[in-house]
Design brief:
Layout: E1 2-4, H1 5-8, E2 9-11, E3 24-28, E4 33-34, E5 37-38, E6 42-45, E7 53-56, E8 61-65, E9 74-77, E10 84-87, E11 90-95, H2 102-109, H3 112-123, H4 134-138, E12 141-143, H5 147-188, E13 195-198, E14 205-207, E15 216-217, E16 221-224, E17 241-243, E18 260-263, E19 272-274, E20 282-284, E21 288-291, H6 296-307, H7 310-320, H8 330-334, E22 337-340, H9 343-383
Parallel strand pairs: 3-10, 16-20
Antiparallel strand pairs: 1-12, 2-11, 3-6, 4-5, 7-10, 8-9, 8-11, 13-22, 14-21, 15-17, 16-17, 18-19, 18-21
Helix pairs in contact: 5-9, 6-9
């Protein structure tokens, strides 16, 4: 049965008002959720909340960023607290049709061809930046199977999402453990005798390759661009730009497992990510720096935890400031001061933390495969090309 989204949902149903007796709110901005993974929830006093903190949500509210839909800032909220408020940059959708599962609609809306379609509308909009409005989502029409079949399809896709989420939680715990030990060894118990050296004294950064616009193709070798570096220090391998396998590029522009890449321009300047295990060659594009060493995974623990220190990002912001489009060079990155203890202590820390980071990188690789499988299955389950063999009682 075909149904229009606007006929099965209430859009932007509820707004924060003076009647809401909240002293503080839990606020989610558009940049802090990607493909249903929340990076940060801000706890803010109502009196200090930004003007965009307006939209109220409830269980199974679908939130969909109206700015640059291709960035995939969307999610479905399960049992949020009463004072959980999201930005007006989201369109909120609350399903009111009892024959439609909210999770099923969420999966429909997050298919790649749908986000691409909405992004096409956004790029043609007369606005300062690519954006859609809530009506563009409400006007979408989908074919919905009977509810039991919806539930079985949800069960398949949710199983993949749950495993991805579990791996992310494991990685978060491992990274928190590594950070705690780093802070205890190198921050809280810093020795005044330790030298102030520069980043290049540990591992220098170098720049990526300047690919020509004519070299981009649909299939080939993946290239890491700034857009692929995520706030959680991982790389988004979905929709990476590609160049031909025949493109001749020096090995110094190849990203190896355990190496760290850094954004060198734009609003996300200073953002870093670790290259996980991968089976294919990956290049690094210009304006993306890379920290290369002979023993990437062995040197990774101290490097990544140092680069994630607030004073490093602040130094990058300071150096790159003063321009409409902030930029920083590899030479400038390499001269940023870094507190360097005795090499023996660094080696002890790296040796202790290496197994943790090997597990983190393996989990990230598994998530890549699971994400690719889910994204491959999603449209085919929705259009009936792949059927679900679950017994309805299992769904």
């Amino acid at each position: 049965m075909k149904k229009k989204v606007g006929n099965i949902c209430k859009t932007n149903a509820s707004t924060l008002s003076r009647k809401d007796d909240f002293e503080e709110i839990l606020y989610l901005d558009t940049a802090n959720i990607t493909k249903n993974k929340i990076d940060e929830i801000q706890k803010i006093a109502v009196s200090q909340a930004p003007s965009r903190a307006q939209r109220k949500v409830k269980n199974n509210t679908i939130i969909y960023s109206t700015v640059r839909p291709n960035l995939e800032h969307f999610g479905i909220l399960e049992n949020p607290q009463e004072n959980f408020i999201v930005s007006t940059g989201f369109s909120t959708l609350d399903v009111v049709d009892k024959n439609i599962s909210p999770k099923y609609l969420y999966y429909l809306l997050t298919q790649k061809h749908i986000t691409n379609y909405l992004h096409t509308i956004a790029t043609n909009a007369v606005s300062a930046y690519p954006s859609i409005n809530s009506d563009d989502i409400s006007d979408l029409v989908f074919d919905f199977p009977d509810n039991p079949i919806q539930l079985c399809i949800i069960a398949v896709l949710s199983a993949l999402d749950d495993k991805i989420a579990l791996n992310n939680r494991i990685n978060d715990n491992l990274e928190a453990m590594a950070k705690t030990i780093y802070d205890y060894w190198f921050v809280q118990n810093a020795d005044e005798k330790w030298e102030k050296k520069e980043i290049e004294d540990y591992i220098p950064s170098s720049g990526g390759f300047a690919f020509k616009s004519t070299e981009w193709i649909n299939k080939g070798i993946s290239v890491i661009k700034i857009k692929d570096i995520q706030e959680d220090n991982t790389l988004n391998f979905n929709d990476m730009s590609k160049v031909s396998e025949e493109t001749i590029v020096d090995d110094k522009f190849i990203a190896n497992t355990g190496e760290v890449v850094i954004a060198m321009t734009g609003a996300t300047i200073g953002k870093v990510a670790v290259v996980p295990y991968h089976n294919h060659k990956i290049f690094v594009n210009q304006r993306v720096g890379i920290f290369k060493s002979a023993n990437p995974i062995g040197n990774l623990p101290f490097l990544i935890n140092s680069l994630k220190q607030p004073y490093i990002r602040e130094s990058i912001f300071s150096i790159s400031g003063g321009a409409a489009q902030p930029n920083i060079s590899n030479e400038q990155i390499n001269t940023i001061q870094l507190t360097m203890p005795d090499n023996n202590l660094i080696e002890r820390y790296n040796h202790l933390m290496k197994p943790l980071y090997m597990q983190i990188l393996k989990n990230q690789q598994q998530n890549q495969h699971l994400t690719q499988l889910r994204d491959w299955l999603l449209p085919m389950l929705m259009n009936g090309q792949v059927s679900v063999n679950y017994h309805l009682s299992d769904c």
